Amino acid sequence: MSFEYTQKLHAGTVFPKFDATLLSGETIEIGLPTANHDWQLVLIYRGRHCPLCTKYLNQLATFQERLSEIGVDIVAISGDSKEQLASHLEQLTVNFPIAYGLTIEQMKTLGLYISDPRSEQETDHPFAEPGLFVVNAKGDIQVVDISNNPFVRPELEALVNGLAWIRNPDNNYPIRGMHRKK
């Protein structure tokens, strides 16, 4: 058995922006904040087949107002098809944009783990394991969390509180994980 290793994105590097499609057919740029926001939380989720993703997306929606108050908008995307997203939306109580059609190449560019379905009943395509990126006003990755399974994700209350603390200019909090060999 051979494996293809992923290339992880690093905190402090430029987030690789890309276009994605919403159910409406509208195209949005992932990594580019919208409206009155200057930061963006980009959530990559496994897809409709994952009940933990459904739960996490619905929980994230409850933090949308708090995130908006500190200038952070939200976008989510998976490798699901348009039809799979339409079906999944029936289980979701979110009002932030959710895109579909994340390609394997985009998954690789983001440094995500990619899994094959266990059966056709699970889903009909390879899918990204969870990833969360917070892109700052400069377009750099402020926060990154990449997992190889659906059981390990940032606890949302802690994440939102942490982002509020980071966004407070009195704290002068830098991007963490930036140690450079001297």
Describe it.
The structure is a single chain. The protein is α+β, with helices and mostly antiparallel strands and 182 residues long. The protein has one domain: Glutaredoxin (3-Layer(aba) Sandwich), CATH 3.40.30.10. Helices cover 24% and strands 21% of the residues. The protein is built from five helices and nine strands, in the order E-E-E-H-H-E-H-E-H-E-E-E-E-H. The chain has a seven-stranded mixed beta sheet with strand order 2-1-5-4-3-8-9. It has a two-stranded antiparallel sheet with strand order 6-7.
What layout of secondary structure does this protein have?
Blueprint: E1 18-22, E2 27-30, E3 39-44, H1 51-61, H2 64-69, E4 72-77, H3 82-89, E5 98-100, H4 104-109, E6 114-115, E7 127-128, E8 131-135, E9 141-146, H5 156-167
Parallel strand pairs: 3-4, 4-5
Antiparallel strand pairs: 1-2, 1-5, 3-8, 6-7, 8-9
* Shape-level CATH architecture: 3-Layer(aba) Sandwich
Name of the CATH superfamily: Glutaredoxin
Q: How much beta, percentage-wise? A: 15-25%
State the distance separating the first and last CA atoms: 39 Å
Class inferred from helices and paired strands: alpha+beta
Q: Biggest sheet, in brief?
A: 7 strands, mixed
List keywords for this structure.
182 residues, alpha+beta, Glutaredoxin, two-stranded antiparallel ribbon, 5 helices, globular, Thioredoxin_domain, AhpC/TSA, Thioredoxin peroxidase, peroxidase, oxidoreductase
Q: What is the gist of this entry?
A:
The protein contains five helices and nine strands, in the order βββααβαβαββββα. By secondary structure, the protein is an alpha+beta fold.
